[in-house]
């Protein structure tokens, strides 16, 4: 069926492509790709040759309109370099315009570094805010962190190795020395998830900026651990009940 298909791709391990994603890419009329050279490697791994066109949110209106027009008759697949399109990646304007034009829009869910990192971190996963990349300039970064300080939710940031220690220190300053996790190279050979307080993690990485791709997870404010208090109360009640 013609339309726009949002296709998640692996964030490291090519084995993580879903069978449905591979089948859709095989029958796509065109793949709108963030970087066609990166997507070419995935297609080569899958043994596919499919026409591609570059797509970014700053692609001009005409390029977007042309893709939306094609969706009337063609299967248009949207992919980013890695993971789920639109998540700190291009795509939302294409989806917006496809919807406005009444095109069929569907998604083929799959890998996303933010979600994978939350599952690795051991931090509360019931309520979280995905904050993407913090600004690189110190003042703008502090302001962005201050906006998040009162939020009763786990916070998720994308980050790069060279900026990691400064970001962790700024988070400790703006949020307090909360529990946190640094998830690195998820699904790749050197995957690791290091946990500790923001201060400990900032010190750990200060002299040794890590290589590879990174997600930082920060626990909610301490007064948000209502559930833990409730769990303890339930345990006490159970112990008391069993002792009777
Ligand atoms: N759309 C992607 C997704 O669904 O996760 C994210 C794209 S964003 C431009 C790239 C950032 O995602 C990286 O700088 C890093 O912070 C994070 N990331 C991507 N792959 C990762 C991996 N394998 N391990 C840890 N973080 C990763």
Automatic annotation (TrEMBL):
Claim: Transit peptide is one of the keywords in the record: no
Gene Ontology CC annotation, any one: cytoplasm
EC numbers: 2.1.1.198
Main localization (coarse): cytoplasm
Localization of this protein: Cytoplasm
Domain Tetrapyrrole methylase: 4-202
GO molecular function annotations of the record: rRNA (cytosine-2'-O-)-methyltransferase activity
Family to which this protein belongs: Belongs to the methyltransferase superfamily. RsmI family.
The protein's name: Ribosomal RNA small subunit methyltransferase I
Organism name: Sphingopyxis granuli
């Amino acid at each position: 069926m013609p339309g726009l298909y949002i296709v998640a791709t692996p964030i490291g391990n090519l084995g993580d492509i879903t069978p449905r994603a591979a089948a859709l890419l095989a029958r796509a009329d065109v793949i709108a790709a963030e970087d066609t050279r990166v997507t070419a490697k995935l297609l080569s791994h899958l043994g596919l040759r499919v026409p591609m066109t570059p797509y970014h949110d700053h692609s001009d209106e005409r390029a977007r309109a042309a893709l939306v027009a094609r969706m009337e008759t063609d299967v248009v697949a949207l992919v980013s370099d890695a993971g789920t399109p639109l998540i700190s990646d291009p795509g939302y304007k294409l989806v917006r315009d496809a919807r406005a034009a009444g095109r069929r829009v569907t998604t083929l869910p799959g890998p996303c570094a933010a979600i994978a990192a939350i599952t690795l971190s051991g931090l509360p996963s019931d309520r979280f805010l995905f904050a993407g990349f913090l600004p690189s300039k110190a003042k703008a970064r502090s302001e962005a962190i201050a906006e998040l300080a009162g939020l009763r939710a786990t916070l998720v940031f994308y980050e790069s190795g060279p900026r990691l220690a400064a970001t962790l220190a700024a988070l400790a300053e703006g949020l307090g020395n909360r529990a946190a996790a640094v998830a690195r190279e998820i699904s790749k050979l050197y995957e690791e998830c290091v946990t500790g307080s923001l201060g400990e993690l900032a010190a750990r990485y200060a002299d040794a900026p890590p290589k590879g791709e990174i997600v930082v997870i920060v626990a909610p404010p301490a007064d948000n651990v209502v559930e833990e208090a409730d769990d303890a109360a339930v345990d006490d009640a159970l112990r008391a009940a069993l002792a009777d």
